[in-house]
Amino acid sequence: MIIPKTNWKAADYFNVTDYTRITANLNDAAVAVGVATKTYETASYATLLMLTTRNNIASHANSIAAACEWDITISITKSAWFDWKELNTIEQVCADAVAETVYAAYGQGNAYGDGLYYGGGTID
Question: Pseudo-torsion of CA 89, 90, 93, 94, nearest 10°?
Answer without folding.
Answer: -140
